[in-house]
Amino acid sequence: MKTCPIFCFCVFLAACSRENETKPEPVVEVKAAQTEVADLDVTVHAPAAVFPRQQANIASRVTSPIRELRARKGDSVSAGQILAVLENRDVRAQQQEALAALEDATAQLQKISTGTLPTDIERARGQLATAEAALNQARKIYDRRAELFKLGAIPARDLLVSQTELANANANYEVARRSLELLETQSREKDIRIAESRVAQARARLAQVEALLQFTELRAPFAGTITEQLLYPGDMAKPETSLFTVMDLAVAVARAQVPEAEAREIRLKQRCDFMPADSKDRKFGGKVSLVNKAVDPARRTVEVWCDLQNPDRWLRAGVFGAVDIVTGTAPKSILVPQSAVQFVEGTRSGAVLVVDGKRVAHKREVETGMISQGKVQIRSGLRAGELVVVEGGYGLPDGTEVRILETDK
Q1: Is residue 323 assigned to a domain?
Q2: DSSP one-letter code for 317
Q3: 60: nearest Cα among 221, 216, 222
């Protein structure tokens, strides 16, 4: 009967020994990637905002009611396209009046130029004709009396009188002839100059009115898109009030504020990429078009512009994002994904978890360099081909056994 208690005691001891056995530690599942050796673009990263290549606020140069709008907000327009027409019936009436004045002045100039003479010249011509007739008459009388004097029919006194009358008639004729020549020369040139001046004045007046007429038609200064419309038909257009805002976004400009120290390496025409903040999967390539020569005294930054090709107008003015400006190349760099490095805040130092051949993760200190397109340059602490944890390693103790779910190469 003593066998039963002894058996129960043995069972109790066996149960206690199983409870004291050590439980195996669980295996942590992680994702890993191999380090790689590649040429790395040396980039400068900076926040940026998009601006149009060209922008114009279009206002009227005259004060007049808006009669017609031929374009609206959101429309694409070509260079020189009429956007709005102002009331211009009064200006068109002035144009017709100026045209009539020009035609009249031109006709007067043609009339004077073709030889039609004023009254003074006609009177001088009459005086010349009278003097010529008197000269001819005096010459005939003198000739007749000279023959009679030879025959002894008249005394010498009569011949002398005829000779004096002939001389006077000849003098009168010369005076009349020279007066006519002087009037014809001076009066014609003066009248022609006056007529030409009136024609020029009429043309200037017509040009002024036609310019005023053109001011009543508002045109697009370049091809682009209307992004703002402030007035409507019937509103009074004034020089101090814009009607439209036109932007050319075929080439967008990303304006970035780059720290002063990093801006020293930036040059014109270097390659740059813009990444919109609201669309990480899109990238717009371009070239550096401006590096400001002045430093912002408050922020200690330099403004840099990147011209971006935007043929489908996907980028809009005001879009915020960041630019990567390629300033050089670091050849044969050891690279790891950015998610593999646990950085020490404010420094380039950090740590990675390296997985050895027994699938054990070891913490290793590293010195990093540049960061570009999700890759971190490792300056010391890693070799090419080593396996590092890229996901699931945060807070993981050194020496932890891991199971790799996925390896990125």
Answers
A1: yes
A2: T
A3: 216
